[in-house]
């Protein structure tokens, strides 16, 4: 195939897609690709592997209805297992769809996790359907010459265990990250995007758009994520309860205002009406955003890519962002708590034994 040609996948010649990340977005993508009938999906499932392999998933979807005991073509427990089929034959993937949480401050980075499959599939296409800003930079550095696409998903969906709850329609935007390591990159990326749109788009069921300005789109989604996703996680309230507690004007708006200014400092002008849309997008849904789900389940949160990276950009460009900076440091404290619960950090409480407990409080 030349870089300008498309591959015509058919029910007899299906695309092979590896999905890494079995949360809400990954599960909806897995179900959608299999439903369309042009893909064989292998999905990496870690914590729920045994139950998912035995019983499948219970999907409640605003788009596809209810499905019990549903499974994709194959479920594997880790990336190395995905490299060969049940007979030990090497598997070549057309796409590696990455929708796992992006926690570069965790024990393994996303680049570490996907490296085995990229090494064995150098001609594959990586689709990063993840939150945050500047997430492509470490990927391009680790895998030069590999096609890397941006996927921005606007969907209300969560997966807890093997229960998938999709509350709103799937809206996926695909585009190409700027990547100077690709030869004839524009044409190559265009063909990869068009192929995936064919695999994923189902009329009346979802919306798939081609994105010609990936960075702008990511800044737009960050307006929501940096405010709604973070604040609800910090106070442990779902979206509707947070609104009932008067969150919008005191917290959402000033954080969103700062994201607008940081984006502007990078040359991206966000539409003024977007702010009002993002403040009200989950009204009445009693929706639990992804970061709050992670907090409640004791998992690491995406603090660095959602808040840390824009704070660093603000500092670099001299943009005043006090609300976002405060959120960053508060969320880092939550991250510390999560890490301690997971055994990733150890706290030696004996270091305070030398303090005289009778003296405690006399300074107040």
UniProtKB/TrEMBL annotation:
Q: Name one GO molecular function term.
A: 2-dehydropantoate 2-reductase activity
Keyword tags: NADP, Oxidoreductase
Of the GO CC terms on this record, one is: cytoplasm
The text of the family note is: Belongs to the ketopantoate reductase family.
Q: Which domain of life is it from?
A: Eukaryota
* A Gene Ontology biological process term: pantothenate biosynthetic process
Q: Which residues form the Ketopantoate reductase N-terminal domain?
A: 17-178
For this protein, the record's NCBIfam families field holds:
apbA_panE
Q: Which InterPro entries match?
A: 6-PGluconate_DH-like_C_sf, 6PGD_dom2, ApbA, KPA_reductase, KPR-Related, KPR_N, NAD(P)-bd_dom_sf
Q: Where is the Ketopantoate reductase C-terminal domain?
A: 213-335
Report what the protein is called. Answer: Unnamed protein product
